[in-house]
Write a structure and sequence with these properties.
Layout: E1 3-8, E2 13-20, E3 24-32, H1 34-38, H2 45-66, E4 76-82, H3 86-103, E5 107-111, H4 112-118, H5 146-153, E6 163-168, E7 173-180, E8 183-189, H6 195-205, H7 213-220, H8 245-256, H9 273-302, E9 306-310, H10 317-323, E10 330-331, H11 343-354
Parallel strand pairs: 1-4, 4-5, 6-9, 9-10
Antiparallel strand pairs: 1-2, 2-3, 6-7, 7-8
Helix pairs in contact: 2-3, 4-11, 6-8, 7-9, 9-10
Bound molecules: 5'-O-[(R)-(carboxyoxy)(hydroxy)phosphoryl]adenosine and zinc ion (ZN).
Length: 372
Protein backbone atom coordinates (compact mmCIF):
# COMPACT_ATOMS: atom_id res chain seq x y z
CA UNK A 1 0.00 0.00 0.00
CA UNK A 2 1.48 3.36 -1.00
CA UNK A 3 0.15 6.64 0.31
CA UNK A 4 1.03 9.46 -2.08
CA UNK A 5 0.54 13.20 -1.63
CA UNK A 6 -0.12 14.87 -4.99
CA UNK A 7 0.42 18.55 -5.71
CA UNK A 8 -1.05 20.47 -8.68
CA UNK A 9 -0.41 24.09 -9.66
CA UNK A 10 0.01 23.99 -13.44
CA UNK A 11 -2.51 26.71 -14.26
CA UNK A 12 -5.11 28.40 -12.05
CA UNK A 13 -6.08 25.75 -9.50
CA UNK A 14 -3.94 25.08 -6.45
CA UNK A 15 -4.65 21.49 -5.44
CA UNK A 16 -3.40 18.74 -3.16
CA UNK A 17 -4.67 15.20 -2.65
CA UNK A 18 -3.86 12.06 -0.71
CA UNK A 19 -4.34 8.92 -2.81
CA UNK A 20 -3.78 5.34 -1.71
CA UNK A 21 -2.68 2.64 -4.16
CA UNK A 22 -3.11 4.82 -7.23
CA UNK A 23 -6.88 5.03 -7.18
CA UNK A 24 -8.38 5.38 -3.72
CA UNK A 25 -8.80 9.12 -3.16
CA UNK A 26 -8.82 10.05 0.54
CA UNK A 27 -8.73 13.81 0.10
CA UNK A 28 -8.98 16.08 -2.91
CA UNK A 29 -8.61 19.77 -2.07
CA UNK A 30 -8.82 22.41 -4.80
CA UNK A 31 -8.44 26.16 -4.30
CA UNK A 32 -10.04 27.65 -7.39
CA UNK A 33 -8.91 31.03 -8.67
CA UNK A 34 -11.92 31.50 -10.94
CA UNK A 35 -13.07 34.63 -9.13
CA UNK A 36 -9.67 36.29 -9.55
CA UNK A 37 -9.57 35.71 -13.30
CA UNK A 38 -13.27 36.15 -14.07
CA UNK A 39 -13.15 39.84 -14.89
CA UNK A 40 -10.33 39.23 -17.40
CA UNK A 41 -12.28 36.28 -18.95
CA UNK A 42 -9.15 34.17 -18.90
CA UNK A 43 -6.19 33.24 -16.72
CA UNK A 44 -3.72 36.06 -15.97
CA UNK A 45 -0.40 34.26 -15.31
CA UNK A 46 1.00 36.78 -12.80
CA UNK A 47 -2.19 36.73 -10.74
CA UNK A 48 -2.23 32.92 -10.89
CA UNK A 49 1.30 32.48 -9.55
CA UNK A 50 0.74 34.94 -6.70
CA UNK A 51 -2.44 33.11 -5.68
CA UNK A 52 -0.60 29.76 -5.79
CA UNK A 53 1.94 31.12 -3.30
CA UNK A 54 -0.85 32.09 -0.92
CA UNK A 55 -2.80 28.85 -1.35
CA UNK A 56 -0.22 26.10 -1.57
CA UNK A 57 0.50 25.48 2.13
CA UNK A 58 -3.13 25.72 3.37
CA UNK A 59 -4.22 23.40 0.56
CA UNK A 60 -1.58 20.79 1.45
CA UNK A 61 -2.54 21.06 5.13
CA UNK A 62 -6.22 20.62 4.25
CA UNK A 63 -5.44 17.57 2.11
CA UNK A 64 -3.56 15.92 4.99
CA UNK A 65 -6.34 16.86 7.44
CA UNK A 66 -8.98 15.48 5.06
CA UNK A 67 -7.24 12.11 4.99
CA UNK A 68 -6.73 12.36 8.82
CA UNK A 69 -3.01 11.86 8.37
CA UNK A 70 0.27 13.69 8.82
CA UNK A 71 3.34 14.05 6.63
CA UNK A 72 4.80 11.03 8.44
CA UNK A 73 2.18 8.81 6.76
CA UNK A 74 3.09 10.00 3.25
CA UNK A 75 5.36 7.67 1.28
CA UNK A 76 6.04 9.84 -1.76
CA UNK A 77 5.38 13.37 -2.99
CA UNK A 78 4.00 13.68 -6.52
CA UNK A 79 3.90 16.86 -8.55
CA UNK A 80 2.69 17.81 -12.02
CA UNK A 81 5.84 19.54 -13.30
CA UNK A 82 4.73 19.97 -16.95
CA UNK A 83 3.10 21.43 -19.01
CA UNK A 84 1.68 24.70 -17.75
CA UNK A 85 2.39 28.33 -16.90
CA UNK A 86 5.95 28.67 -15.68
CA UNK A 87 5.16 30.93 -12.71
CA UNK A 88 2.38 28.58 -11.61
CA UNK A 89 4.35 25.35 -12.10
CA UNK A 90 7.27 26.68 -10.08
CA UNK A 91 5.17 27.02 -6.91
CA UNK A 92 4.01 23.39 -6.91
CA UNK A 93 7.40 22.04 -7.96
CA UNK A 94 9.19 24.04 -5.25
CA UNK A 95 6.73 22.91 -2.58
CA UNK A 96 7.04 19.26 -3.66
CA UNK A 97 10.84 19.33 -3.78
CA UNK A 98 11.02 21.02 -0.38
CA UNK A 99 8.73 18.41 1.20
CA UNK A 100 10.58 15.51 -0.43
CA UNK A 101 13.91 16.86 0.77
CA UNK A 102 12.74 17.71 4.29
CA UNK A 103 10.98 14.37 4.77
CA UNK A 104 13.55 12.24 2.94
CA UNK A 105 10.71 10.80 0.81
CA UNK A 106 10.82 10.05 -2.94
CA UNK A 107 9.73 12.74 -5.38
CA UNK A 108 7.65 11.65 -8.38
CA UNK A 109 7.23 13.96 -11.37
CA UNK A 110 4.19 13.52 -13.62
CA UNK A 111 2.94 15.07 -16.82
CA UNK A 112 -0.30 16.96 -16.14
CA UNK A 113 -1.88 15.94 -19.47
CA UNK A 114 -1.08 12.25 -18.89
CA UNK A 115 -2.57 12.66 -15.43
CA UNK A 116 -5.81 13.95 -17.04
CA UNK A 117 -5.99 10.64 -18.95
CA UNK A 118 -5.23 8.65 -15.80
CA UNK A 119 -8.13 10.36 -14.00
CA UNK A 120 -10.48 7.69 -15.43
CA UNK A 121 -8.88 5.23 -12.98
CA UNK A 122 -9.70 7.19 -9.84
CA UNK A 123 -12.34 5.71 -7.62
CA UNK A 124 -15.47 7.84 -7.58
CA UNK A 125 -15.92 8.06 -3.88
CA UNK A 126 -16.46 10.68 -1.23
CA UNK A 127 -13.11 12.08 -0.21
CA UNK A 128 -12.20 13.27 3.26
CA UNK A 129 -11.87 9.74 4.58
CA UNK A 130 -9.17 8.46 6.96
CA UNK A 131 -6.42 6.29 5.50
CA UNK A 132 -7.25 2.57 5.39
CA UNK A 133 -5.43 0.18 7.69
CA UNK A 134 -4.77 -2.27 4.86
CA UNK A 135 -4.36 -1.97 1.11
CA UNK A 136 -7.53 -1.68 -0.95
CA UNK A 137 -7.64 -3.87 -4.05
CA UNK A 138 -6.65 -1.63 -6.94
CA UNK A 139 -9.28 -3.00 -9.27
CA UNK A 140 -12.66 -3.28 -7.64
CA UNK A 141 -14.84 -5.92 -9.25
CA UNK A 142 -17.65 -4.22 -11.10
CA UNK A 143 -15.96 -0.84 -11.08
CA UNK A 144 -16.68 1.00 -14.32
CA UNK A 145 -13.00 1.59 -14.94
CA UNK A 146 -12.06 -2.04 -14.27
CA UNK A 147 -10.40 -2.63 -17.63
CA UNK A 148 -8.58 0.65 -17.73
CA UNK A 149 -7.36 0.40 -14.18
CA UNK A 150 -6.00 -3.06 -14.95
CA UNK A 151 -3.81 -1.52 -17.63
CA UNK A 152 -1.90 0.39 -15.03
CA UNK A 153 -0.89 -2.58 -12.94
CA UNK A 154 1.57 -4.04 -15.41
CA UNK A 155 2.85 -3.34 -18.88
CA UNK A 156 1.42 -6.68 -19.98
CA UNK A 157 -0.78 -6.54 -23.09
CA UNK A 158 -4.38 -5.86 -22.22
CA UNK A 159 -7.37 -6.52 -24.47
CA UNK A 160 -8.31 -2.86 -24.10
CA UNK A 161 -4.84 -1.74 -25.14
CA UNK A 162 -3.81 0.15 -27.14
CA UNK A 163 -6.28 2.82 -26.26
CA UNK A 164 -6.78 6.18 -27.92
CA UNK A 165 -6.48 8.95 -25.34
CA UNK A 166 -8.26 12.26 -25.83
CA UNK A 167 -7.46 15.24 -23.61
CA UNK A 168 -9.88 18.13 -24.05
CA UNK A 169 -9.27 21.08 -21.74
CA UNK A 170 -8.68 24.80 -21.61
CA UNK A 171 -5.06 24.36 -22.66
CA UNK A 172 -5.08 21.14 -24.68
CA UNK A 173 -6.93 19.26 -27.36
CA UNK A 174 -4.74 16.25 -28.04
CA UNK A 175 -4.94 12.64 -29.11
CA UNK A 176 -2.62 9.91 -27.83
CA UNK A 177 -1.88 6.27 -28.43
CA UNK A 178 -1.76 4.65 -24.99
CA UNK A 179 -0.11 1.25 -24.69
CA UNK A 180 0.37 1.53 -20.94
CA UNK A 181 0.54 4.37 -18.44
CA UNK A 182 4.24 4.73 -19.17
CA UNK A 183 3.88 4.44 -22.95
CA UNK A 184 1.75 7.40 -24.08
CA UNK A 185 2.55 8.88 -27.49
CA UNK A 186 1.07 12.10 -28.91
CA UNK A 187 -0.60 11.49 -32.28
CA UNK A 188 -2.54 14.74 -32.80
CA UNK A 189 -3.04 18.19 -31.27
CA UNK A 190 -4.72 21.50 -31.91
CA UNK A 191 -2.87 23.84 -34.23
CA UNK A 192 -4.53 26.92 -32.70
CA UNK A 193 -7.14 27.17 -29.90
CA UNK A 194 -7.83 24.35 -27.48
CA UNK A 195 -11.50 23.35 -27.45
CA UNK A 196 -11.99 24.60 -23.86
CA UNK A 197 -10.40 27.89 -24.88
CA UNK A 198 -12.88 28.12 -27.79
CA UNK A 199 -15.75 27.50 -25.33
CA UNK A 200 -14.43 30.26 -23.05
CA UNK A 201 -13.94 32.74 -25.91
CA UNK A 202 -17.33 32.00 -27.48
CA UNK A 203 -18.85 32.51 -24.02
CA UNK A 204 -17.18 35.95 -23.91
CA UNK A 205 -18.61 36.79 -27.37
CA UNK A 206 -22.03 35.75 -26.07
CA UNK A 207 -21.68 37.89 -22.94
CA UNK A 208 -21.55 34.84 -20.63
CA UNK A 209 -19.40 34.38 -17.53
CA UNK A 210 -15.95 32.73 -17.34
CA UNK A 211 -15.32 29.79 -17.55
CA UNK A 212 -17.87 29.46 -20.33
CA UNK A 213 -17.71 25.71 -20.97
CA UNK A 214 -20.22 24.59 -18.31
CA UNK A 215 -22.59 27.49 -19.13
CA UNK A 216 -22.63 26.81 -22.89
CA UNK A 217 -23.08 23.10 -22.14
CA UNK A 218 -26.16 23.91 -20.01
CA UNK A 219 -27.71 26.37 -22.50
CA UNK A 220 -27.03 23.99 -25.40
CA UNK A 221 -29.51 21.53 -23.89
CA UNK A 222 -32.32 24.05 -24.50
CA UNK A 223 -31.30 24.89 -28.08
CA UNK A 224 -31.53 23.36 -31.56
CA UNK A 225 -28.12 21.99 -32.63
CA UNK A 226 -29.05 22.11 -36.32
CA UNK A 227 -30.29 25.71 -36.32
CA UNK A 228 -26.96 27.25 -37.41
CA UNK A 229 -24.46 25.48 -39.62
CA UNK A 230 -21.10 26.37 -38.05
CA UNK A 231 -17.95 25.04 -39.79
CA UNK A 232 -16.34 21.70 -38.90
CA UNK A 233 -12.61 22.03 -39.56
CA UNK A 234 -11.19 18.61 -40.36
CA UNK A 235 -7.79 19.59 -41.90
CA UNK A 236 -6.14 17.02 -44.22
CA UNK A 237 -7.76 13.68 -44.94
CA UNK A 238 -5.67 11.69 -42.41
CA UNK A 239 -4.90 14.50 -40.00
CA UNK A 240 -5.41 13.91 -36.29
CA UNK A 241 -4.82 17.58 -35.54
CA UNK A 242 -7.56 19.98 -34.54
CA UNK A 243 -8.39 23.61 -35.31
CA UNK A 244 -11.07 25.58 -33.48
CA UNK A 245 -10.21 29.20 -34.29
CA UNK A 246 -12.31 29.25 -37.50
CA UNK A 247 -15.34 28.00 -35.59
CA UNK A 248 -14.82 30.66 -32.93
CA UNK A 249 -14.58 33.39 -35.60
CA UNK A 250 -17.68 32.03 -37.28
CA UNK A 251 -19.65 32.46 -34.03
CA UNK A 252 -18.25 35.99 -33.70
CA UNK A 253 -19.43 36.95 -37.20
CA UNK A 254 -22.79 35.27 -36.66
CA UNK A 255 -23.35 37.39 -33.55
CA UNK A 256 -21.83 40.71 -34.66
CA UNK A 257 -22.01 40.46 -38.45
CA UNK A 258 -19.11 40.12 -40.88
CA UNK A 259 -16.89 43.21 -40.57
CA UNK A 260 -17.26 45.54 -43.57
CA UNK A 261 -14.45 47.53 -45.11
CA UNK A 262 -14.33 51.18 -43.87
CA UNK A 263 -17.38 50.65 -41.63
CA UNK A 264 -16.99 51.65 -37.98
CA UNK A 265 -17.54 48.83 -35.52
CA UNK A 266 -21.08 48.83 -34.12
CA UNK A 267 -21.83 47.45 -30.66
CA UNK A 268 -24.28 44.58 -30.90
CA UNK A 269 -26.07 43.33 -27.77
CA UNK A 270 -25.33 39.62 -27.22
CA UNK A 271 -28.32 37.40 -28.05
CA UNK A 272 -30.57 36.10 -25.29
CA UNK A 273 -33.29 33.46 -24.88
CA UNK A 274 -33.89 30.91 -27.65
CA UNK A 275 -31.45 32.65 -30.05
CA UNK A 276 -28.66 32.29 -27.47
CA UNK A 277 -29.57 28.66 -26.77
CA UNK A 278 -29.50 27.86 -30.50
CA UNK A 279 -26.02 29.37 -30.91
CA UNK A 280 -24.76 27.37 -27.91
CA UNK A 281 -26.32 24.14 -29.21
CA UNK A 282 -24.99 24.67 -32.75
CA UNK A 283 -21.49 25.60 -31.53
CA UNK A 284 -21.40 22.57 -29.23
CA UNK A 285 -22.61 20.30 -32.05
CA UNK A 286 -19.74 21.53 -34.26
CA UNK A 287 -17.15 20.88 -31.51
CA UNK A 288 -18.54 17.43 -30.70
CA UNK A 289 -18.79 16.45 -34.39
CA UNK A 290 -15.14 17.27 -35.04
CA UNK A 291 -13.94 15.52 -31.87
CA UNK A 292 -15.91 12.36 -32.62
CA UNK A 293 -14.73 12.23 -36.26
CA UNK A 294 -11.10 12.70 -35.19
CA UNK A 295 -11.54 9.97 -32.59
CA UNK A 296 -12.79 7.62 -35.34
CA UNK A 297 -9.72 8.46 -37.43
CA UNK A 298 -7.40 7.89 -34.48
CA UNK A 299 -9.02 4.54 -33.67
CA UNK A 300 -8.64 3.41 -37.30
CA UNK A 301 -5.00 4.51 -37.48
CA UNK A 302 -3.94 2.97 -34.17
CA UNK A 303 -6.24 -0.08 -34.25
CA UNK A 304 -7.26 0.87 -30.72
CA UNK A 305 -9.61 -1.21 -28.60
CA UNK A 306 -10.84 1.48 -26.25
CA UNK A 307 -10.99 5.23 -25.72
CA UNK A 308 -9.94 7.20 -22.65
CA UNK A 309 -11.14 10.80 -22.33
CA UNK A 310 -9.93 13.40 -19.81
CA UNK A 311 -9.67 17.16 -19.16
CA UNK A 312 -12.18 19.86 -18.26
CA UNK A 313 -14.25 19.48 -21.44
CA UNK A 314 -14.69 15.75 -20.73
CA UNK A 315 -17.39 16.95 -18.30
CA UNK A 316 -19.39 18.10 -21.35
CA UNK A 317 -22.79 16.41 -21.48
CA UNK A 318 -23.08 16.72 -25.27
CA UNK A 319 -19.75 14.94 -25.76
CA UNK A 320 -20.61 12.27 -23.19
CA UNK A 321 -23.99 11.58 -24.79
CA UNK A 322 -22.53 11.36 -28.27
CA UNK A 323 -19.75 8.97 -27.17
CA UNK A 324 -22.16 6.81 -25.17
CA UNK A 325 -23.07 5.01 -28.40
CA UNK A 326 -19.50 4.75 -29.74
CA UNK A 327 -18.58 1.33 -31.10
CA UNK A 328 -15.71 0.88 -28.59
CA UNK A 329 -15.71 1.16 -24.79
CA UNK A 330 -15.21 4.81 -23.82
CA UNK A 331 -13.92 5.67 -20.34
CA UNK A 332 -14.64 9.08 -18.79
CA UNK A 333 -13.46 10.38 -15.40
CA UNK A 334 -16.00 10.99 -12.68
CA UNK A 335 -17.18 14.61 -13.02
CA UNK A 336 -15.19 15.72 -9.96
CA UNK A 337 -11.94 14.59 -11.63
CA UNK A 338 -12.48 16.20 -15.07
CA UNK A 339 -11.07 19.64 -14.29
CA UNK A 340 -7.65 20.22 -12.74
CA UNK A 341 -7.01 18.32 -9.52
CA UNK A 342 -4.10 16.71 -7.69
CA UNK A 343 -5.69 13.26 -7.23
CA UNK A 344 -4.95 12.39 -10.85
CA UNK A 345 -1.27 13.27 -10.36
CA UNK A 346 -0.99 11.28 -7.13
CA UNK A 347 -2.73 8.37 -8.91
CA UNK A 348 -0.44 8.34 -11.92
CA UNK A 349 2.55 8.72 -9.60
CA UNK A 350 1.75 5.28 -8.16
CA UNK A 351 2.67 3.70 -11.50
CA UNK A 352 6.04 5.46 -11.49
CA UNK A 353 6.49 4.71 -7.77
CA UNK A 354 6.01 0.99 -8.46
CA UNK A 355 8.72 1.20 -11.12
CA UNK A 356 10.96 3.20 -8.76
CA UNK A 357 11.06 6.01 -11.31
CA UNK A 358 11.80 8.87 -8.98
CA UNK A 359 12.74 12.44 -9.85
CA UNK A 360 15.83 14.12 -8.48
CA UNK A 361 15.74 17.29 -6.40
CA UNK A 362 16.91 19.34 -9.38
CA UNK A 363 13.58 18.66 -11.12
CA UNK A 364 12.60 21.52 -13.41
CA UNK A 365 9.21 23.06 -14.11
CA UNK A 366 8.64 22.69 -17.86
CA UNK A 367 6.07 24.72 -19.80
CA UNK A 368 5.51 22.11 -22.54
CA UNK A 369 4.78 18.39 -22.54
CA UNK A 370 7.66 16.32 -23.83
CA UNK A 371 5.37 15.05 -26.59
CA UNK A 372 3.47 18.25 -27.37
O1 LIG B 1 -8.74 20.67 -17.39
P1 LIG B 1 -9.05 22.07 -17.03
O2 LIG B 1 -9.51 22.34 -15.62
O3 LIG B 1 -7.82 23.03 -17.22
C1 LIG B 1 -6.83 22.87 -18.18
O4 LIG B 1 -5.92 22.01 -17.99
O5 LIG B 1 -6.92 23.61 -19.19
O6 LIG B 1 -10.14 22.58 -18.08
C2 LIG B 1 -10.77 23.82 -17.98
C3 LIG B 1 -11.61 24.03 -19.23
C4 LIG B 1 -12.23 25.40 -19.36
O7 LIG B 1 -11.95 25.89 -20.65
C5 LIG B 1 -13.73 25.15 -19.17
O8 LIG B 1 -14.56 26.07 -19.87
C6 LIG B 1 -13.86 23.75 -19.72
O9 LIG B 1 -12.71 23.08 -19.26
N1 LIG B 1 -15.08 23.05 -19.25
C7 LIG B 1 -16.08 22.66 -20.08
C8 LIG B 1 -17.07 22.06 -19.25
N2 LIG B 1 -16.61 22.07 -17.95
C9 LIG B 1 -15.39 22.70 -17.99
N3 LIG B 1 -16.23 22.78 -21.39
C10 LIG B 1 -17.36 22.30 -21.96
N4 LIG B 1 -18.35 21.70 -21.24
C11 LIG B 1 -18.25 21.56 -19.89
N5 LIG B 1 -19.23 20.98 -19.21
ZN1 LIG C 1 -5.63 20.48 -16.95
Amino acid sequence: MAVILGIESTCDETAASVVVDGWDVHSNVIASQVELHQKYRGVVPEIASRAHIENILPVIQDALAGARCTLADIEAIAVAHRPGLIGSLLIGVTAAKTLAWALGKPLVAVDHVHAHLYSVCLKNTNDDRPLPVAATPRVAPGDATHGVAAMLATDAPDPRSPAVGLVVSGGHTSLYRIKSWTDIVLIGATIDDAVGEAYDKVAAILGLEYPGGPIIDRLAREGDPSSISFPRTMLERDSLDFSFSGLKTSVLYHVRGVPKKHASPVYVEPPTGPALNDICASFQAACVDVIVKKLRRAVAQTEASSIIVGGGVSANQGLRECLSTFELPVYFPALRYCTDNAAMSAGLAQVLFDKQRFASLDLDAVTRSVFA
